[in-house]
């Protein structure tokens, strides 16, 4: 795969930019702040619909402009694909593949990149949540179907936390909680079950992913360290080792025909309104 041409319109510091790229290594050279990382960020955005530097889209649009355009001509197996994104902060992105309008998610996979930036040091220096996010991102880019499980997990966690907050006698020090419907232990139990089930699915996927990554990591690190030291990666969870091993072996929560594993428990159709909300 080769990105032959990159076009930008009102992306970061660039009112316009046309960048032709040859196959092989390209090096961007320039003074600090001249816009090298902005170009790399644009390529990363085209590949992943996300920036490695910011969570929101607004900073990607040039100051004073309303929208940004990122367009790439990608060559793969001697065929060229034109991938185009229009970034409009606060609204859904618009996407086009070979000039035909598509849903943004449909462009994923047209361009595949591996971006390594100073921010990636958070993988070893940062919080465990950074490492979980990295694994989940990788999971989704390898097998997009995990995106659904991941977003279900986030939704359930949010709903369960809201329920726990509502159940606590005060919200914040000394403040009385606002009155809402009192949650019953049964309701909490239902959310516990959902959380355990989807959390188990996600853990299964992360453990499997790490199992696949481990030999690659050890080999790649061996090359840069010239064999002086070795690197390994293990997933440390609060579960006991036997349970984690059972999950990794797929004895529980393994993928089956409908969706993934026995998730979702309501079958393959739309989720009940309480979960979809
Ligand atoms: N939304 C924006 N609108 C206009 N300019 C922006 C926007 N976001 C960033 N910039 C400008 O982009 C420049 C930073 O570009 P970038 O981070 O690509 O620099 P760089 O060449 O990678 O620098 P360094 O070598 O220091 O890493 C800054 O001048 C900043 O003001």
UniProtKB/TrEMBL annotation:
**Biological function:** The RecF protein is involved in DNA metabolism; it is required for DNA replication and normal SOS inducibility. RecF binds preferentially to single-stranded, linear DNA. It also seems to bind ATP.
Transcription regulation as a keyword? no
Q: Quote the record's binding site residues for ATP.
A: 30-37
Q: Does this UniProt record's set of keywords contain Nuclease?
A: no
Its protein name is: DNA replication and repair protein RecF
**Swiss-Prot/TrEMBL keywords:** ATP-binding, Cytoplasm, DNA damage, DNA repair, DNA replication, DNA-binding, Nucleotide-binding, SOS response
The primary location reported for this protein is: cytoplasm
Organism phylogeny: Bacteria, Bacillati, Actinomycetota, Actinomycetes, Micrococcales
- Write the gene name: recF
Q: Write out the similarity annotation.
A: Belongs to the RecF family.
Q: Where is this region: Disordered?
A: 167-186
Location within or outside the cell: Cytoplasm
């Amino acid at each position: 795969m080769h990105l032959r041409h990159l076009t930008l319109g009102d992306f970061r510091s660039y009112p316009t930019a046309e960048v032709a790229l040859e196959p092989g290594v390209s090096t961007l050279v320039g003074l600090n702040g001249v816009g090298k990382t902005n170009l790399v960020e644009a390529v990363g955005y085209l590949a992943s619909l996300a920036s490695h530097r910011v969570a929101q889209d607004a900073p990607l649009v040039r100051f004073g402009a309303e929208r940004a355009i990122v367009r790439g001509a990608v060559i793969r197996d001697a065929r060229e694909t034109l991938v185009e994104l229009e970034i409009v902060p606060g609204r859904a992105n618009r996407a086009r593949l070979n000039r035909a309008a598509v849903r943004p998610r449909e462009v994923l996979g047209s361009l595949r990149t591996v971006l390594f930036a100073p921010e990636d040091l958070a993988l070893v220096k940062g919080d465990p949540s950074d490492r979980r996010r990295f694994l989940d991102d990788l999971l989704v880019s390898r097998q997009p179907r995990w995106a659904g499980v991941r977003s279900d997990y986030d939704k359930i966690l949010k709903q369960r936390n809201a329920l726990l907050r509502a159940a606590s006698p005060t919200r914040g020090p000394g403040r009385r909680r606002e009155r809402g419907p009192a949650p019953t232990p049964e309701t909490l139990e239902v959310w516990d079950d959902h959380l355990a089930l989807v959390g188990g699915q996600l853990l299964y996927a992360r453990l499997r992913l790490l199992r696949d990554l481990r030999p690659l990591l050890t080999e790649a690190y061996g090359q840069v360290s010239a064999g002086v030291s070795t690197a390994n990666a293990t997933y440390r969870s609060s579960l006991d080792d036997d349970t984690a091993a059972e999950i990794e072996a797929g004895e529980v929560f393994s993928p089956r025909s409908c969706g993934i594993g026995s998730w979702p428990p309501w079958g393959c159709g739309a989720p009940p309104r309480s979960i979809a909300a």
